[in-house]
Design brief:
Oligomer: single chain
Order of helices and strands: HHEHEHEEHEEEHEEH
Helix content: 25-40%
Bound molecules: S-adenosylmethionine
Number of strands: 9
CATH class of the largest domain: Alpha Beta
Distance between the termini: 35 Å
CATH topology of the largest domain: Rossmann fold
Number of helices: 7
Radius of gyration: 18 Å
Largest sheet: 7 strands, mixed
Strand order of the largest sheet: 3-2-1-4-5-9-8
């Protein structure tokens, strides 16, 4: 929902408040025909909710097995699925999507080089003005040298991770912000990071090693939609 809200704000599709009810209303008010691509879609868990809300959603994933489950889901019968080579969006159409989103996937990719290839492929898949939004785990209390093995910091380029499901994750820390920005800013404009904190008593606020984490929702546009809007308003004011 945050991703849809952000898209609406960037494209001026609707004016959106911060509360969930108005975000939902704004999402429904988004232009018809909005096309979305789920990067690392797995069995299509998030796609189901978006399809139920009337969006056109495709999925890409590196796992044939996950895609086979997704393709067999009657609720996703109108979706197209594309096998990713691990650093790309597979054969999904280029210049086609309004939003590419990724949840619980980029954090499992321990190689910075592969993540950069993915960002470039996502950029190709987007229409001009489209946006990319993905989630990472953010560790506010650590810097990159303190990330416990076998996990890695953003700068690491580990190609031989044991698996793609939390065996060896990338832990994003504040000192890695310049590297993250460098990886995104050559491709995307209006890059934003929103940190979503869990309440201190939430079961989810720690994981293995007892280290507290938050979610970082990171987004960028293919084009200067937000900047153009802000500066247009400034010119009108002057
Ligand atoms: C934890 S699952 C999350 C699935 C889905 N996004 C969700 O939230 O339910 C991670 C998914 O990312 C996929 N994945 C991992 N590395 C990938 C890569 N390099 N390229 C594409 N998909 C990848 C895995 O195959 C898996 O389906």
């Amino acid at each position: 929902m945050y991703m849809l809200n952000d898209y609406a704000l960037r494209t001026q599709s609707a004016l959106v408040g911060a509360d969930l009810t108005s975000m939902l209303a704004a999402a429904v008010a988004l232009p018809e025909g909005l096309r979305l691509l789920d990067f690392g879609c797995g069995v299509g868990r998030l796609m189901e909710a978006l399809v139920a809300s009337g969006f056109s959603v495709d999925g890409t994933d590196v796992s044939e097995e996950m895609l086979a489950f997704a393709r067999a889901n009657p609720k996703l019968s109108k979706c197209s699925f594309y096998l990713s080579g691990g650093g790309d969006c597979g054969d999904s159409p280029r210049g086609h999507y309004d939003i590419v989103y990724s949840q619980l996937c980029i954090q499992h990719i321990a190689s910075r080089q592969i993540r950069k290839e993915i960002f470039s492929s996502v950029h190709d898949a987007l229409k001009p003005g489209g946006m990319f939004s993905f989630q990472l785990h953010f560790y506010p209390g650590l810097d990159s040298k303190e990330v416990p093995l076998p996990h890695v910091s953003w700068d690491s380029d580990k190609f031989d991770a044991l698996g793609t499901n939390s065996e060896e994750d990338v832990w994003f820390t504040a000192d890695a912000l310049p590297s993250l920005m460098a990886d995104l800013s050559g491709l995307f404009q209006d890059v934003r990071i929103q940190i979503v904190d869990f309440p201190a008593n939430a079961e989810l606020h720690t994981e293995a090693y007892g280290v507290r984490f938050s979610h970082a929702i990171i987004s960028g546009s293919k084009g200067f939609s937000l900047a153009q809007r802000v500066y247009a308003e400034m010119r009108e004011d002057s």
